[in-house]
């Protein structure tokens, strides 16, 4: 017979673990670069941009579009890597609580 009370207890445990894991995502920081290090972007596991560093040698470049492209590339690379690390952190934090379902997207839980 279906154990509704047991299932509700398990859901509360999963919610608590997910909340704890989401708090830990703030501690994940990723820095990615573009243009051989001319532009660096740092983001956290919650996919928040924390810092942009632009090498002074390109600050005087007249090709503004190139600088913009380098910034976008660095931010996108950092966001991608941070997202991957955040998913791994969430997977580890909920291991054994949520079934390992291929293609399960935890994006709705703050990722």
From TrEMBL:
Cross-referenced InterPro entries, in alphabetical order? YbaB-like_sf, YbaB/EbfC
> Where does it live in the cell?
Cytoplasm, Nucleoid
- Entry coiled-coil feature ranges: 4-31
Gene Ontology molecular-function annotations? DNA binding
UniProt GO cellular component terms? bacterial nucleoid; cytosol
Cite the entry's keywords alphabetically: Coiled coil, Cytoplasm, DNA-binding
Is this entry keyworded Membrane? no
Sorted alphabetically, which Pfam families does this protein's record hold? YbaB_DNA_bd
Can you tell me which family this protein belongs to? Answer: Belongs to the YbaB/EbfC family.
Assembly with partners or alone: Homodimer.
Protein role = Binds to DNA and alters its conformation. May be involved in regulation of gene expression, nucleoid organization and DNA protection.
The identity of this protein, by name, is Nucleoid-associated protein SAMN04487941_0906
Organism source for this protein? Pontibacter akesuensis
């Amino acid at each position: 017979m279906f154990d509704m009370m047991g299932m509700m207890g398990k859901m509360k445990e999963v919610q608590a673990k997910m909340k704890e894991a989401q708090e830990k995502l703030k501690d994940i920081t990723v820095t990615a670069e573009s243009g051989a290090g001319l532009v660096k972007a740092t983001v956290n596991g919650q996919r928040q941009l924390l810092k942009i560093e632009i090498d002074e040698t390109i600050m005087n470049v007249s090709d503004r579009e190139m600088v913009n492209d380098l910034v976008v590339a660095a931010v996108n690379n950092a966001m991608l890597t941070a997202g991957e690390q955040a998913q791994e952190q969430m997977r580890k934090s909920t291991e054994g609580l949520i079934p390992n379902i291929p293609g399960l997207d935890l994006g709705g839980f703050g990722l």
